[in-house]
Design goal:
alpha/beta; eight-stranded mixed beta sheet; seven-stranded mixed beta sheet; 8 helices; 34 strands; 28% strand; elongated
């Protein structure tokens, strides 16, 4: 078989637990971003824009929505007989196989897929970051330096360096030290979780480390082992937009940045398009009473109310008198008459009743998960329902088909005070 110069493996099985109810029924890479896109669309689009025609997507946590979104890869021109996109789930064989227990272990469990493609180089990516990168330029850097491994790196603020794998390099960007999430970092050169490996070296390293670490991880185990063996590891410096939307606040903020007149991250560049699954939605309709200002509104929306500085996914219905401000409304939501939504995230197919108010009151951290919901943003989960005439405060969580009896009756009516939660468990649990 003719060797492929490079194939990609995309790690897309992460839960993204800090996104709270947004990832209760889907993996983080399947979360909506920028209206009609999913987070995984960005690395997938980077691959096809970089000339990579063979992509394996490693799934694990809640894979159904991700599998449906990717399908056979048509939006990314990856529906091919040779190469294309392949979904790689954990699987059991006669003696081995289990759930993925580390980033490197996930790759190790798919050695058969790698062997079947016979690549010279393997590009390993995370499926949950927002950025545009030409991997062909990174490969050229890798070959020019005769590298065994090339790691994409980003300079981060020194106070944030402890959250990343941090490395030190010489004047030629050859890596001589790597520390995973150091308590006292001495450098701010952070790994982006993007690697190019020579395949023969990758295979050897994964086989060796699997004998020692069942939870084999690139940052904790593989990279330090290769440095100890004095392999040629180089840092590829990336100086453009890159976001890990790992928290409610960072996710909300990254979406809001897209609304700027000149956004730092431009979704509309023809020369580096972001592709996504397109179900051929009807055009957007704006009624006579509608008022839309500084917002992103996706296909198929029907708007009769007011939308200000917000992002709407596909087929969102906004009824008369409704006001949406500084919020993210995902696909197929229904916003009832007179509803007022301020600084909130409403997940797909949710129904917000008439005269519901969301996002007012004191900024009190959520009582159940204060480390997740603490920035004043209230979140309504997928397929959730808030009945008519309910007031919801800040840092609140609503999940499930809620009824009037789930809310507190006060002199002002039915309320969920700031920091409160109403969670209706489904048959399989939340």
């Amino acid at each position: 078989m003719r060797k492929k110069e490079m194939i990609a493996l995309l790690l897309a099985g992460g839960q993204g637990s800090r996104l709270g109810v947004l990832t209760e029924q889907k993996a983080k890479p399947a979360v909506s971003f920028g209206g009609k896109y999913k987070i995984i669309d960005f690395p997938m689009s980077n691959c096809i824009n970089s000339g990579i025609d063979t992509v394996g997507v490693l799934t694990q946590y809640e894979p159904l929505s991700l599998n449906r979104h990717i399908g056979i890869g048509i939006p990314w021109d990856l529906d091919r007989r040779s190469g294309g996109v392949t979904i790689l789930a954990p699987h059991l064989r006669a003696e081995t196989g289990a759930f993925y227990s580390g980033t490197a272990n996930a790759i190790f469990q798919n050695m058969q897929y790698l062997e079947s493609n016979n690549p010279e180089n393997v590009l390993i990516l995370s499926g949950d970051h927002i950025y545009k990168m030409d991997y062909a330029k990174m490969l050229a850097f890798h070959k020019r330096n005769n590298a065994d491994v090339t790691i994409a790196v980003l300079e981060v603020p020194m106070e944030e360096a402890c959250r990343f794998g941090i490395m030190n390099t010489d004047v030629n960007d050859k890596i001589y030290e790597f520390v995973e999430k150091p308590e006292q970092p001495v450098s701010n050169l952070a790994s982006m979780g993007i690697y190019i490996f020579n395949y023969s070296l990758l295979k050897e390293a994964l086989n060796d480390d699997n004998k020692i670490h069942p939870d084999s991880d690139f940052g904790k185990h593989i990279i330090p082992m290769l440095l100890e063996r004095e392999k040629r590891l180089f840092a590829y410096r990336f100086k453009y937009y890159w976001k890990d939307v790992g928290t409610i606040e960072s996710y909300w903020q990254a979406n809001m940045e897209l609304i700027k007149t000149l956004p730092d991250f431009n979704l509309y560049e023809d020369f580096w398009r972001i592709y996504t699954s397109d179900d051929h939605q009807p055009p957007t309709y704006m009624g006579e009473s509608s008022d839309i200002r500084t917002s992103i509104v996706s296909e198929g929306c029907e708007i009769y109310g007011s939308v200000v500085h917000s992002i709407l996914g596909t087929e969102v219905f906004v009824d008369e008198g409704a006001v949406i401000k500084d919020s993210i409304i995902m696909d197929k939501c229904h916003i009832g008459k007179g509803a007022v939504i301020d600084r909130a995230i409403i997940d797909s197919e949710a129904v917000i009743g008439e005269n519901v108010t969301i996002g007012f009151g004191e900024n009190i951290a959520n009582e159940l998960k204060p480390h997740i919901y603490d920035s004043g943003i209230s979140v309504v989960g997928h397929l959730s329902v808030i009945p008519d005439n309910v007031t919801v405060g800040k840092n609140c969580v609503v999940y499930g088909d809620t009824k009037h009896s789930d809310y507190r009756l006060t002199e002002n009516g039915l309320e969920l005070p700031s920091g409160g939660s109403v969670i209706i468990e489904s048959e399989g649990g939340i």
